[in-house]
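Structure ticket #2291
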Amino acid sequence: MTLHSQESMRRHYASDENLRIRQEIHDRYTVPARSFAEWVLARVDWHPGARVLDIGCGPGLYYGKMRNRQLNVDYHGIDLLSSMIVNHLGQQDGVPLSVADVQAIPYANDQFDVVMANHMLYHVEDVSQAISEIRRVLKPGGIVVVATNSINTMPELQVLMRRAIVLLTRSGAAQVRAPEMPSDRFSLESGTRILSRHFYAVVRHDMPSALVFADVEPAMAYLESTRDLREPFLPDDVVWDDVMMIMRQQISQLIKHLGELVINKQAGVLIASDDGGFIGDFVNQT
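Resolution: structure written out below.
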């Protein structure tokens, strides 16, 4: 990750507003209507009293879902930026929260039964170091839960953005690609390979769904919430506001013609372990 993209990432997460906007849009416009976070938690065989570390915990989305499910766990949360945990749902419950970097986790070895790192490893400069730290604080027999997107998620949005950029840039069309999705750096595809270098077994669960927009405004709100993460990757002669103007025109025309805009999503979760969770019975039999 370049210095420029690091600065953009920090600006993007100076508050939890952009994250909140996207989460609300996902919650309201996803078809079928299902909570991704609840689906992720349902992939784990939770044990009473399990000690859990939620890395990149943000405002506590997963904590809230765990509380709703009445999971009896010892929850701890860390995030790189204090602005992201100031509104954490666990504040009122007194859960341990701290500002910390996944590349230097402030816990001793062998502390947690479950370590979650959901939709955040693609922001980390040294992913291998981060996973080594996760492995260090994980108890023997523990599991790692990593939610992320497929590299093939939201293809319709990428096509529309590339078309807008081609119309605006002086570069040849062959040189243009849509700004990468943040999760491209640690996707379901690449994440499976990366985790397999550190753990005995990795299982991938996919949850396909779609954003369905009958109006242009929520689609534009979603795009604007990603500005800090995408704008640095535009060609030098292309201005973000011009891209958004053309995106609005394209989306409006598609909705007018088709009645709705469907953006297909492909997200999922990777669960890794040396001998715990899903792999435990197999290891015991070998």
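Closing remark: The two ends are 41 Å apart (CA to CA).
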